[in-house]
Amino acid sequence: MAAAAALRALRARLAGPRGAGARFSSAGFPEEKPQFPGASAEFVDRLEFIQPNVISGIPVYRVMDRQGQILRESEDPQLPKELVLKLYRTMTLLNTMDRILYESQRQGRISFYMTNYGEEGTHVGSAAALDDTDLVFGQYREAGVLMYRGYPLDLFMAQCYGNSRDPGKGRQMPVHYGCRQRHFVTISSPLATQIPQAVGAAYAIKRADANRAVVCYFGEGAASEGDAHAGFNFAATLECPIVFFCRNNGYAISTPTAEQYRGDGIAARGPGYGLLSIRVDGNDVFAVYKVTREARRRAVAENRPVLIEAMTYRIGHHSTSDDSSAYRSVDEVNYWDKQDHPISRLRHYMLRRGWWDDEQEKGWRKSSRRMVLESFSAAERLPKPAPQLLFSDVYRELPPHLRRQRGALQQHLRRYGQHYPLELFDTGGDPQNPGPEPPQI
């Protein structure tokens, strides 16, 4: 029956509307329409290739200039003072935490770190635009989203130290945060794996009619992975309520965008997949807020995926394993740090409104540094998770082969414990003691 209905529909399309006269080509032949199921188009009789530069670059939406001046009053989101102060304090607190943890890695106190310098506006502006229950899939440079949602400094530090308070029990690299209660899926290192996972979650939310959105963050480098293609295509064809948030910060580790792609960035790819797409100034926290808020509204109300490309700049090194002076100049970095930083732009706005002054700045910088250092010091004193926790969280009930392995580890530690720094682990002085469970935050 379905085949017959499809055939009738095709015949109707070929016949055209009732009463309509036949249309003829310039050569006098009846005009034909393409009936291919894979595209909507017209026939042409002139051979022409589509040039990649047929359209000028997608414009970058912004609300305020680099001096914090609103460009058009009708575009001002009119955020209340309390919210603007929260945006600013979250960005500066993240910046302070970055500086302290980066230096601590250089001192050998933690094993690894990745800063967020220059990209704070993309985190905080987008986080403020989401509902608290929206599900977030991050990459590894979105700590500000979690911080805005209230994730405590103590747990940021616990994760980077991998101590007994770490909800991940020390199993992840530093900066691989996660929090079920704050709807933030645990970060994984492989690039772009979160994109198809996020689409699957969005499809499940759609099926459940849950009135929520999924927001998936990634960089322009991750957009070159095959998982990005699969995720974009599935999201469009399944009509999922998801916002793809791409931070285009100019570099995929050491590879500049000029060597990553030849098209007009990432937003230009969206229409080809059927994604509603927009490009925004990622250093303008108000523009990021407005774009994300509207994208989130459309994703939920219309069950459609939206692609946001936030143009920004990675001021810091890719990670503590990277020296970016090998592939970019100090002058380039200084330009973005001094001339177009999201924190300074918002500060200019607050100064114009009379909501902030030098004394408040000085006091906040001092108190935020003290908060970070106190959490840092507390995390450093805590022991590592008990060795026996290696075997937990895989199965609800520990299977025989893991029970045997756990027993073998206990025997090994009883016999050779003097060769291991067990005093650094939370065993209560007993190698057989698994220690307390970390908090489920």
UniProtKB/TrEMBL annotation:
Q: What is its EC number?
A: 1.2.4.4
Catalysed reactions, as listed in the record? N(6)-[(R)-lipoyl]-L-lysyl-[protein] + 3-methyl-2-oxobutanoate + H(+) = N(6)-[(R)-S(8)-2-methylpropanoyldihydrolipoyl]-L-lysyl-[protein] + CO2
Q: Which cofactor does it need?
A: thiamine diphosphate
Q: Positions of the region Disordered?
A: 422-441
Per UniProt, residues of the Dehydrogenase E1 component domain are: 88-387
* Protein name according to UniProt: 2-oxoisovalerate dehydrogenase subunit alpha
Family, according to the entry, reads as follows: Belongs to the BCKDHA family.
Q: Note the CDD domains from the entry.
A: TPP_E1_PDC_ADC_BCADC
SUPFAM superfamilies from the UniProt entry = Thiamin diphosphate-binding fold (THDP-binding) (SSF52518)
Which BP terms in the Gene Ontology apply to this protein?
branched-chain alpha-keto acid decarboxylation to branched-chain acyl-CoA
As for subcellular location, the record says:
Mitochondrion matrix
Against Gene3D superfamilies, the record matches this protein to:
3.40.50.970
Subunit structure, interactors included: Heterotetramer of 2 alpha/BCKDHA and 2 beta chains/BCKDHB that forms the branched-chain alpha-keto acid decarboxylase (E1) component of the BCKD complex. The branched-chain alpha-ketoacid dehydrogenase is a large complex composed of three major building blocks E1, E2 and E3. It is organized around E2, a 24-meric cubic core composed of DBT, to which are associated 6 to 12 copies of E1, and approximately 6 copies of the dehydrogenase E3, a DLD dimer. Interacts with PPM1K.
Highest taxon listed in the record's lineage: Eukaryota
Q: Which PANTHER family match?
A: 2-OXOISOVALERATE DEHYDROGENASE SUBUNIT ALPHA, MITOCHONDRIAL
Organism (species)? Strigops habroptila
The gene for this chain is BCKDHA
Please state the protein's primary subcellular location: mitochondrion
Write out the entry's keywords from A to Z.
Metal-binding, Mitochondrion, Oxidoreductase, Potassium, Thiamine pyrophosphate, Transit peptide
One of its Pfam families is E1_dh
Q: Which InterPro entries match?
A: Alpha-ketoacid_DH_E1_comp, DH_E1, THDP-binding
What does the UniProt function comment say about this protein?
The branched-chain alpha-keto dehydrogenase complex catalyzes the overall conversion of alpha-keto acids to acyl-CoA and CO(2). It contains multiple copies of three enzymatic components: branched-chain alpha-keto acid decarboxylase (E1), lipoamide acyltransferase (E2) and lipoamide dehydrogenase (E3). Together with BCKDHB forms the heterotetrameric E1 subunit of the mitochondrial branched-chain alpha-ketoacid dehydrogenase (BCKD) complex. The BCKD complex catalyzes the multi-step oxidative decarboxylation of alpha-ketoacids derived from the branched-chain amino-acids valine, leucine and isoleucine producing CO2 and acyl-CoA which is subsequently utilized to produce energy. The E1 subunit catalyzes the first step with the decarboxylation of the alpha-ketoacid forming an enzyme-product intermediate.
What molecular functions are annotated in GO for this chain?
branched-chain 2-oxo acid dehydrogenase activity; metal ion binding
Q: Which lineage?
A: Eukaryota, Metazoa, Chordata, Craniata, Vertebrata
What Gene Ontology terms describe where this protein resides (cellular component)? branched-chain alpha-ketoacid dehydrogenase complex; mitochondrial matrix
